[in-house]
């Protein structure tokens, strides 16, 4: 699968503001970045950062008062391998040290509070892929996808109570149920083509099953194997597409994703990132 | 059913404390108080209060520093009529004015937050008695009775999340689901014989169905028709057995309830309350 | 003070909906209703209800699908007597039985959770009028009046944390602090002229001090002695201006309040309520 | 400062349980481990893990049914340099990439909810060391140290409302206020000698000021420069002294800390960790 991403953000910066953008596709084994361009107007010195463990990439800069435009384009080949049916669940003593902390509760995923509910709802499902699929299905069937029903402070516990939310909330609840059942889980943010516009940033989750991370999308808005990964994190706070320190308002956000099944051959050796400031 | 109640409370009063006790059986059409005695030691001037609408009875007094003993005994005939099977649900426009406010959320019953969950879980149950029975059954099946898992500030929302609680919590969740479905509901506190000791204060709920209040006990600890009613309220704060203003510690609480199927005839005209101070 | 109230509400009723409106000025010793008219279009059978204890008045009716207009006009003389400076605080054992329950926490006023904070902030203020004034001042100084920062489920605890809200939230926090300090308190909703438009429903609170209820407005948007009282309740759920059961959307809400210092003499014997359906 | 640590834990393991213990002193520039011994009885295969970034060390093992004893002893030289008075605050654009995420809210530190309160309380304090000291002082003065008033799920928001907690809660609130003011902050767990027994694990926090991490202890139970660091984390979930997967009960916990001002010379080349299983 070859995906073309085109993101345009326009901000009204009311006072000098430090931006930390997280728009660029991740360094990740399942995808190959063929071409990429990030433009900021007015031209500003950009600082790049790649998280060495997660592969998340950030661009930081100071924006002056005035209008700010961000334009990001990328061509990415996604090669996510679907999991083998029947994939099992690692017993806790076989969860690697670096993965173990994905069992911990986080700001938006209170797995310490939802332990009994998770046991009750999913203890009868067969361990492994089927259990996490049961979690994802339950969320799809019981949480209404309702734009505007949650905000940046909404947590999985609240979603479990109010029974409505958006993709981020669906994913948080999936992460929470998994962790409550001793299955390491984390949030994945990225781009994917939706049948129903408008396109937007998307959030799904992945669970650690028998030695690999497996993606699940409780919204069922798009096939998980098509997601172009931007960020991987404990929860949404780690993968926000923009974190601003100052005073700026997002005036518009346009996201276009195009997918084509047969990707042309990549030209090796070509410099991929051409950040134009 | 004739029930004999015997309650002994011992407090260590660390500084002069105002007591508001709510131990006495209620004025209520379903029960007939045959004999009653309330003793406080040391002897103190007691002030009685009966809520003219709900029939709840309170005794207020100022306790000095030192040990305080309260002893309450009563003999009560309970004649609760079980509801007709198939009892329906009043449409909102037929709920009487004085009953309407039992649809409102209260401190421990956030029916405004649990609306979607209630719809989801119980919308398919037939309206009326069967729906409230479905609510009561769901609570019994999904909430673990776990002493110590909740405290005086725990709300129905928390119980719905943590999936464990005690009788008060079970009742609050029942009240909450009913209100969320436009069925007026309220908390009922009282005495009842439990097969499994120790005896204690009990809390259940009642729902307003087709012109009458119907009792439900999601704990299934005792038949509802045997409950000797002490208090009726919006939620637990209205029917606490003791509210203290000052500094006192409950050292011991002994409650004995005996039930006999064939009550001897009551002697009319006899003064019922003999508060001995 | 003579106040003229003019309220126009327009609803789009999407499906048959039961309305319970609470727009009419209360039966209350501090105010004298000189003239009043309530019109609903289309013409519908209206059912009136007056709460015998609080004096709150409700109109209930079934609205069919379509547009619904409500027009309420009233002329009211308000004679609220400002409290004597130095008014004290009743010790708990002198709080009347019917007033005692205004110490209890309610849905939006978790006085059981904010006890320590209230003690900490206000224990040094002189008991009585000055303490409640200190509470009202603290709220004014520490909570930002920010329309849109809260919603119908926001509680005093949240306001204490987020430090912003609207009049209803200010009043809830006042009620909560008072109750936490064993001062009975309740919410008061009504009409008052604001210097800064737009006019709207207003919410303030009153505390029970030495035998009388005293009004406080932490928003300082208008003098409390000018408030035309519509409702008195434990918290906002008791005094909502409209409670709808069904599916209807408020399209517009226009409220006009005019005040004149010298009221013309009332004509006794005139029928006051002329509900025109 | 030379500190001797002696920790004894006894567990009753009811069913086979996976242990992840976090008792050992951290790899950290401010301290030098002179000698250390970890014993588990019965003898079990132990797996060591050191977080390469934070220096936290964990021991994992599978414990069988039965009693389990853990004994940890260490001698550590602590050389924490107190910060220069007047140390400033880094502007956000100078916070290093790896440090930036310590501005994010976490499970127990809802800095996104307490932004206004933090601004209100600390905006007037001079930026830098003095501001964080003001935060620490405020917590000391306004939160009561009350064992039993919080549990493993209590968050900073709750502590801010209830105004009582233990060392972990004090530290969480400090972390939360700092993050809300764009000062990176994190939790530090360790051992320190308390004047008032019993000794226990301790939790404090550190804030990132002008290029270095500076410790603060809002409990004022011990000088921060004496803390033997065990763990550094986003919040308490990262530095729990024991995380158990299974069913085991802590029967006893004995912690002894001795401090001496003049440390004898260390013998270089000696193997430090002698884990005896």
TrEMBL record, chains A, B, C, D:
It comes from Pseudorhodoferax soli. The keyword Protease applies. GO terms for molecular function: peptidase activity. It comes from the Bacteria. Transmembrane segments: none annotated. GO terms for biological process: proteolysis. Residues 159-220 form the Transglutaminase-like domain. Pfam families: Transglut_core. The keyword Hydrolase applies. This is Transglutaminase-like putative cysteine protease. Keywords: Hydrolase, Protease.
